[in-house]
Amino acid sequence: MSGFFAATIFVIPAYGRDYSSEADCLADWQAGKDFRATGVHSGYCSIRDTDYMRGREIDAVDFRYDKGSRQTLISL
Fold it and tell me: Which among 29, 44, 57, 62 counts the fewest CB atoms within 10 Å?
């Protein structure tokens, strides 16, 4: 089924960072910067944790940025 994800982790930029564009947000993810998980999951994570997330059946990351007013979803 297209667009279906088993589990999604919701994250926001860590340490007071924020982004005005999706490109900047995803560039920092690709660069390995930390993001803070919100909701059911908690703690800090980065692209370095993708194997761990997949092992926990998390297959997507939902980024909230621009003071939480915008979001983008990527699959792992």
Answer: 57
pLDDT of residue 40: 81
On whether the CB atoms of residues 61 and 71 are closer than 8 A, the answer is no
3-state SS record for 11-52: EEECCCCCCCCHHHHHHHHHCCCCEEEECCCCEEECHHHHHH
Average per-residue pLDDT for the chain: 92
Look at residues 53, 51, 73 and name the one whose alpha carbon lies nearest to residue 64: 73
Give the per-residue pLDDT at 42: 87
Q: Let me know: does 36 contact 43? Beta carbons within 8 Å.
A: yes
Domain ranges of the chain: 8-75
